[in-house]
Amino acid sequence: MKILVFVELLGTISFAFSGAVIAMRHRLDAFGILIITFISSIGGGTLRDILIGSTPVSWMLDIYLVYTILATYFAAIFFHNKLLKLKNIFFWMDTFGLSLVTILAINKGIACNLHPLVCIALGTISGCFGGVLRDIVLNEIPVLFKENLYATACIAGGIIYFFSVFFTAETYVSSILACGTIIFMRFGADHYKWNLPKFK
Amino acid sequence: MKILVFVELLGTISFAFSGAVIAMRHRLDAFGILIITFISSIGGGTLRDILIGSTPVSWMLDIYLVYTILATYFAAIFFHNKLLKLKNIFFWMDTFGLSLVTILAINKGIACNLHPLVCIALGTISGCFGGVLRDIVLNEIPVLFKENLYATACIAGGIIYFFSVFFTAETYVSSILACGTIIFMRFGADHYKWNLPKFK
Amino acid sequence: MKILVFVELLGTISFAFSGAVIAMRHRLDAFGILIITFISSIGGGTLRDILIGSTPVSWMLDIYLVYTILATYFAAIFFHNKLLKLKNIFFWMDTFGLSLVTILAINKGIACNLHPLVCIALGTISGCFGGVLRDIVLNEIPVLFKENLYATACIAGGIIYFFSVFFTAETYVSSILACGTIIFMRFGADHYKWNLPKFK
């Protein structure tokens, strides 16, 4: 399990860092950047915990997560010019983190006896709503609703997970298939500009 | 009770459909429309459940409600041109649904031993905050705060409910009177342009 | 304890009044102003209660608080021209109220066995997020993120509180020191234009 905790942490760092950079672009002060950094990294998980009634919400009980986000915040403020050059590394951290956060939330939903469709919704909320809350606070229409296959990847991963559980009944195989789906779709959206249709 | 479940479902469909149409006008992609459809239909009830601590929130435990919203979403995407001609039908679905959602939430508040004023607030939140959350996510000042007697109708219905309970003690009579008040005020606001005063 | 309840009430009144005035400037109708008044005064405490799972949230159980906010709302609507001249009084009500709300939330966090850093975050959320939610609903970038030492004062007060608890172990001395810190920083920010650095 150590490797999973590590990958999830990478995802948190990547969510936090992208939040900090976007906040700096909006010319917020040091405190505003701190809040946006936190909202970006823990917003999705917090909403997940509130919806299923798991309180105090998880980041409040995990001081090492708080330290990690604080460290990311200071790193973003002092070294953002250098860190922004590592764009590819952040893309992969974000993608692996997203896939893990989604699958972990699906498992939380299963533990609450929720219907598979609801579990998929919960996984997608956990993966994506940090960014949605960040955009709401920054007074923009959430980029998630307009741009690419971010949330769709979570939904597809969730569907693959439950299909695979239905046919094989091995949780870890299903998890790997689901994570693979999310990573594959994110990669496709990023490199081949896959996109969803729009309507008038 | 069957008829009540049916009327509440009509309200949910109407909230969901209006959300989907507004999201399409904002040129969101298919996923963005899905989210706005859900937020519009279940946002108010979700906030109600979070405030009183009834978790997992109700839509997570009601898979038929989720199916209904999904069906409304697909109907809105594929047939919105035809459905938009049924404007009057949607007005009445929305109005009956709103009155029921409000009274049901008031009863939830009573079951939690909350003060009548707080129950009325809870009813109004349930009826109106789906639309408020939708507008916040879409980056607009909530239409609710500017336009017509939507929320005021919920408040008036709640006041009538408790006055009537105080004088008659028959819950179903009070519920009918309260629903009638809400429907009457919505009709007046729509047809005779009743409105609240503004201040500078 | 009577004096503390009174000071906290002053803070609530001041949060509510400033919310009402800002809502009137946005030309909302009477209901919109009512909602913004409530969100400004109870938003922070509501978020605090939701995060730690203390439900029904506190304002729902405290009808006198609801009466106080309603009275402030009517006072703001009918006498705002006269009340706005009392700017200094509102500054001090707001500052004292903020310091108390922050310290009370920190104590709630301690009662939940949360880590000091998390308690400080909870205190800051309680003190500041009413205004953040108000600005989000009104479709503005939260003034908190751009302007002055409002939230920083809460954080500083929280740090002083835990340092002082660490060294003296007397809760009431620590509380006084922490409140003093918050009041001092707010005064400095207001009169000497103290501010946080920005980043590009």
> What sort of overall outline of chain A do the alpha carbons produce when their principal axes are compared?
globular
Major sheet details of chain A: none
Q: What is the helix fraction of residues of chain A, given as a range?
A: over 70%
Low-confidence stretches of chain A: none
Which structural class do you get from the secondary structure elements of chain A?
mainly alpha
Mean of all residue-level pLDDT scores of chain A: 83
The largest interface is: A-B, 30 and 29 residues
Radius of gyration of chain A: 16 Å
End-to-end distance of chain A = 46 Å
Number of strands of chain A: 0
Which oligomerization state do the chains in this entry correspond to? homotrimer
Give the strand content of chain A.
Answer: under 5%
Helix and strand string of chain A, N-terminal first?
HHHHHHH
* Number of distinct helices of chain A: 7
Describe the structure.
- 3 copies of one chain form a homotrimer.
- The first copy, chain A, has 200 residues and is an all-alpha fold.
- Chain A has helices at 2-25, 30-52, 63-83, 87-111, 116-137, 150-168, 171-191.
- At the B-C interface, helix 2, helix 5 and helix 6 of B face helix 2 and helix 3 of C.
Structure at a glance:
The first copy, chain A, has about 200 residues and is mostly helical. Chain A has a domain at about 1-140. Helix content of chain A is about 80%, strand content about 0%.
